[in-house]
Structure formats: C-alpha cells, structure tokens
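Posting for a labmate who doesn't have an account.
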Amino acid sequence: MHDWQYSERARHLTSSAIREILKVTEHPDVISFAGGLPSPATFPIERMRAAAERVLTDSPQAALQYSATEGFAPLREWIAKRYSRDGLTLAPENVLITTGSQQGLDLIGKIFIDEGSRVLVEAPSYLGALQSFSLFAPTYVPVPTDDHGLLPEALTPEQTKGARFLYAMPNFQNPTGRRLPMARREALAAVAKRDGLAIIEDDPYGELDYEGQRLPSLMSLAPAHVLYMGSFSKVLAPGLRLGFIIGPQAVIAKLVQAKQAADLHTPSLTQRIAYEVVKDGFLDTHIPSIRTLYAAQAKAMLASLAKHMPTGTTWTPPAGGMFIWLTLPAGIDTMQLLDKAIAQNVAFVPGAPFYVGTPPSNTLRLSFVTVPPEKIEVGVARLGALVAEALARRAA
C-alpha cells in the first residue's frame, strides 16, 4: 500500500461534529434535533421544476456552459437591488456568487488569514466557520456574548489591534438563535470605524424573523468595513448550493481570484434556475410562509421545554431562525448526555464544538424546524428525563 504523504494542513483536518452526529440519526426511529436543515416542506418544488424547464428550453446551451466567475449577471443585479436599502446603494460589481455560503467562508479564509493571524469570533460561534477558518491556522480570540448576543464593549482597541476580521452572525445566530439588538449593531459599527476593524457578517437566517421585523445589517451601518454573506439555502433550497458575498469592489475582486482557483464558477444551471424562481418577487410571498411554519415549530418546542426540563435549565426563546440554545445545570456534560440520548432515539448537538479555547460542558443546540410538534413533545420529554437522571446521579 502506498504511503500517502499528507500536508501539515491535511493532518490537522477534523470532521464536523454535526455531520458525524447526523450519520447516527439517519435511522427513522431517531427524533433528531441535531441537523440545521431547513424543512423540506418549504421547498418550492413545482416552481423550481417550472423554472428548470424554462431555463433548459429558452437558454439550454448557456445554462450548460462555463460562465463568469463572478456569477450570472442578472442574479447579481437582483441581489444588488434587493440589498440596496437602509441608505445603502449597491451595484452588481459588489456581488460575488459562491457555491454555498461554506465556499464563501473558505474564500474569506484564503484571502485574509495567514498562520497565526488574529481572528475574532463570538463565543459560541458557528461551527462551520470555525472548521473552515481553522484550515489556515489562525489564532482565535473569543468575544464574550450574553442572551442578546455579542458584547461590543468587549472589543477594546487592544482586542481588535492586528485582527484580520471579526466573524459575526447577528441574526438568529447558529447555534444560539440570538439576534443582536439595534443599539449593539450601532456600537459594533462604531468599533469597526474607530479601529479599522473588518467584519464578516454571516446572515443565512436574517429573513426568518417570525414577525417580519427586519433590523438593518451591519453592512448598511459600516459598508467600508463589512463583507456580507447571504444564502439561498434557507429561503429556497440548500441543494442549489447558492450563496453570495457583498462587499467593496476591491475585496470582491480579490475573492474572485481565489474562486477562480477553487472552482472557476458556481454552476450556471442552478444560478439561472434560482434567478427564474426569484426574479418576479416570489420570495416576498414565499418567505412569510416559512416564517409561519418555523414560528409554530418554535412555539411547540418552547412549550415542551417549559413542561419537561428540570429546574436550573435555561434557554433564550428565539424571535426567528431555526435554533434554541440550552444551558443545563452546572456539572452536566452534554457530550456524555448525547450518548444516552441516542440510546433513547433522540439526538442534539453538544455545545462544546461551537467554542474556541476551553468550552463549557453543559450547553447544547436544538433544531426544531424538521420535527413535527408531536415528535418534538416526545423527544423533549425523553431529553428532560435524561437531564433529570443526570441531576439525580450528581445529588446521590
């Protein structure tokens, strides 16, 4: 057998904790609160089918050919117009289409991070971003958070000095479900301007506010300092693998160079299909139906948590998005709890992988959007019983 010589970078690769858990949850009897998957009930299948037929009828050769690295021009123009709000005016040149948001994270890591570069991240932060950035061996600096998200006052000049960027998810953050209040957005924008701090604003869940009360983006508050990441995964379908980055033209140009080396361009066919679906205002009627469904699912889980979780367990009711973050009583290890939960056909994601440095052991993430209310009740009841058992063992 040949002895393959891996690079230093490859030797430090690790699998996503969530993806590994999802392998265990494929059995139909498992009630899975683990995956951050959008509900298949929200996929506009018939509209997608009709759009694909139009694309392959009207422009089949262009749809199946190589195309520009920057992305399908009409789709970039549509994105630029949609996000030209809150005093911000964008052009297609400010937009790069990516093969999912995950590619956007990879490209950002490639153009900004050298080994040892300081990168500021929320504590906790999105696991997929940590996994992507870690390939480039940064020095992570965790930024404290509370029940309302990141604490801008923690970003002192000493903290931000030399940092390549702050990675933040201000809307219904993965994993906590928290949304950054307006006052903190303004304070964070002020820090960016004061210290020359670059901010990566990752916003896959911003449209999923249950009340439809959107807050201004960090990009609109400090456009020279912010790269904004968006996605079609949560509002159309993740299988399209379509994301986008909006930012200053000079930065977009550098990202284009990195993308040329990665995949030449995002698939022409899926870009054109997505554009056919959204170009006539479809999302303005489709997204409210997703919000209604997810709000009902969240309400069901919150009711079950209140009913079944032992005293001392806390959580923040989400105003949007797909997640609820639990903090269990001190001393309970959710990595150990997961094994017992899977034995009871219930799955969740322990909180530790979402942290850099030394994580607390008693946190976990629940996703509620793919589980019907009656199964939410059963799954949360089993999980609550396991937490109660753990507490009883500690007290014995």
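Reply:
Got it, the structure tokens are right above this. The chain has two domains: 8-43+284-395, 45-282.
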